[in-house]
Amino acid sequence: MSSKFWVKTFIVLAISFSSALIWADATENVLAELSNAHGVSGFEKPVRKILEKQWKEQGINFEIDGMGNLVGKFSSYSAKKPTILVMAHMDEVGFLVTQINENGFLRVQPLGAWVTHVVWSQKWVIGTGSQYITAISGMDPPHVLADEFSIPPVDFSKMFLDTGLNKKDLQAMGIRPGLPVTPATKFQVLKANKRYAGKAFDDRAMLAVILDLMKYINSNKELLEKVNVVFAATVQEEVGMRGAQTVYASLKPDLVLNLEAGIAKDYPTQFTEQQPPKLGGGPTVFIYDWSMLPNPNLVAMIAKTAKNNKIPMQWESEYNYGQDASRLQSSGQGMPAVNIGIPIRYAHSHIGIIDRDDYNNTVKLLAKVISSLDTKTIKAMR
Ligand SMILES: [Zn+2]
Question: Do residues 131 and 204 make contact, with C-beta atoms less than 8 angstroms apart?
Answer without folding.
Answer: no
